[in-house]
Write a structure and sequence with these properties.
single chain; mainly beta; 9-stranded antiparallel beta sheet; Beta-galactosidase, Chain A, domain 5; 6-stranded antiparallel beta sheet; 332 residues
Length: 332
């Protein structure tokens, strides 16, 4: 039997892809709807664990409550009041909508059915590339982006690579983010250790929109309650915070670590650049504080409205930008 396998399957009425490492006893399941990862099953110390707190069935995949493992494009997080300006033009993502109903977040592809562009397996890895052309001109976003998302399972864990290509005729604002939830045991997050290699906290208002300009940036020396530069228990900390000025390891990967001291099981969520958003799942509709969302993102939330993000989000016609992140399993 070849070590790795890749196959299509069904979850109730939903099409899914399964990537398997037979020798390493690891398996990924990914829904084509939204390209949402459903499970990441690993064997550690003779025990089976599912490290992904993903959607449990086809109904949850359809309703996408909590945006579990959401692919976020062409923007991640929230856009203030669903309005922004780009290249001198004001845009409204929800024309005609007023009040509390104005809530634009996490991009346009959570409800997209992705096509399978490639499904591969050999002695080194299993992988799938899922593509979508759902990002097309619409109210508030007069641009066209082709999106490709590749998941790869190998001996190192999971690699996710996103590719965004501007197939329109205008410069487009866009950036990528991923919204995974991880669980290490059946307990609450209070007993898990978290480490985020950041120097700076992104301060937000009550609406979770970063404060304007330099006010958004707070040195972690001045925010000790939210400082996880050294591994420490989450305890009763309530996190829905962005972190920036991230330090990379020698191999160039930026690693945010989550560990269960009781079992020694841990993960490292790595990314090539950008910011990390951590959320202790205090407001989700199920399994409150039973998982931690560790969200690698190219830019912070509301980047479409920030002068300090303007160059990072610009994508010229015909140009492509890629972002890489992933998950490593760590045992101690």
């Amino acid at each position: 039997m070849m070590r790795y396998a890749a196959e299509q399957a069904r979850l109730d009425g939903q099409g899914i892809v399964i990537l398997t490492d037979h020798h390493g006893r690891r398996r990924l399941r990914i829904a084509r709807h939204g390209a949402a990862l459903l499970s990441f099953e690993v064997r550690a110390s003779g025990v089976e664990h599912d490290l992904a707190d993903g959607y449990r069935d086809a109904v949850e995949v359809d309703t996408r409550l909590g945006s579990r493992f959401a692919i976020m494009a062409p923007f991640a997080g929230r856009i203030d009041d669903a309005r922004y300006a780009f290249d001198g033009r004001a845009q409204d993502l929800q024309p005609g909508v007023a009040g509390a109903e104005r809530a634009s977040r996490h991009g346009f592809v959570r409800d997209a059915d992705f096509a399978i562009a490639a499904l591969t397996a050999d002695a080194r890895h299993a992988g799938v590339t899922l593509t979508s052309s759902a990002i097309r001109p619409q109210p508030g976003y007069p641009h066209a982006i082709d999106l490709g998302v590749t998941f790869m399972l190998d001996a190192g864990g999971i690699t996710l690579e996103a590719a965004m290509r501007n197939v329109g005729d205008s410069v487009a604002p866009c950036f990528f983010g991923w919204h995974p939830y991880f669980r290490l045991s059946g307990s609450t997050v209070a007993g898990w250790q978290l480490q985020i290699p950041a120097q700076t906290l992104i301060r937000t208002g009550a609406n979770l929109i970063p404060l304007p300009g330099a006010a958004a940036y707070v040195a972690l020396d001045d925010a000790p309650a939210l400082d996880f530069r050294e591994p420490r228990l989450i305890g009763d900390s309530i996190l829905d915070q962005g972190y920036t000025d991230l330090a990379a390891d020698r191999d160039g990967r930026i690693r945010t670590r989550l560990r269960d001291p009781a079992s020694g099981l841990g993960i490292a969520v790595w990314q090539s650049c950008g910011v990390m958003h951590a959320f202790t799942a205090d407001t989700v509709s199920r399994d409150v504080r039973r998982a931690v969302a560790l969200e690698p993102m190219e830019c912070m939330a509301d980047a479409f409205n920030r002068a300090d993000c303007a160059e990072a989000i610009r994508l010229l016609p015909g140009a492509e930008r890629r972002f890489r992140c992933g998950v490593e399993v760590e045992l101690s």
